[in-house]
Q: What sequence folds into this?
């Protein structure tokens, strides 16, 4: 680890430093979107067929199976459901490896986000303590609150494509800006997951 702007950042194995706050923003955004996209008890947006975060769905099961880490486990399960839907949508493209989405930010970034998640899960802190941005989900599902959160990420310039909403231009180099643009690309609301994405040049 080294310090950049007062923050610890991973620098091992020759990897370029990324502010830990950017990694936390990406992980938080994945959790919030995964939570919002569920179909279960609270309905959510119905983008994937999972009911892992609701009190009488996955939460009840994971409370009994994993009493120490159940809060992380329910978010992890919802995130996995979202990642699979995202991957299915990307596979509809003729060159899916060139698509950059919220759940496929690039191999190295995805690896770092997963490492951070595992570190936080082992830390003994709850998700809300470790990732303050998760307050948007703390009061349960409110459609308007979620879309206010999305709109708060700014505007995007997108066009329809056969696999989803293609954001114009190249993916921002900054992880924070990349995530903000991809979250903003979720709006306007649709019945199915809109797959906001960039296409890499190569």
A:
């Amino acid at each position: 680890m080294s310090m950049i702007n007062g923050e610890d950042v991973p620098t091992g194995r020759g990897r370029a430093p990324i502010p830990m706050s950017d990694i936390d923003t990406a992980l938080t955004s994945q959790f919030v979107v995964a939570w919002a996209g569920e179909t279960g008890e609270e309905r959510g947006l119905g983008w994937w067929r999972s009911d892992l975060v609701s009190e009488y769905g996955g939460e009840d099961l994971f409370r009994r199976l994993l009493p120490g880490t159940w809060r992380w486990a329910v978010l992890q399960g919802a995130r996995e459901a979202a990642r699979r839907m995202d991957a299915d949508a990307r596979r509809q493209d003729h060159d899916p490896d060139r698509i950059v989405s919220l759940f496929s930010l690039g191999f190295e970034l995805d690896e770092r986000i997963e490492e951070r998640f595992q570190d936080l899960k082992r830390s003994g802190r709850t998700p809300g303590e470790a990732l303050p941005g998760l307050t948007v989900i703390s009061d349960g599902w409110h459609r308007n609150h979620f879309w206010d959160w999305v709109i708060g990420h700014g505007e995007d310039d997108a066009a329809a494509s056969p696999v989803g909403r293609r954001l114009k231009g190249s993916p921002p180099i900054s992880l924070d800006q990349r995530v903000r643009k991809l979250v903003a690309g979720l709006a306007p609301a649709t019945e199915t997951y809109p797959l906001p994405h960039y296409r890499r040049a190569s």
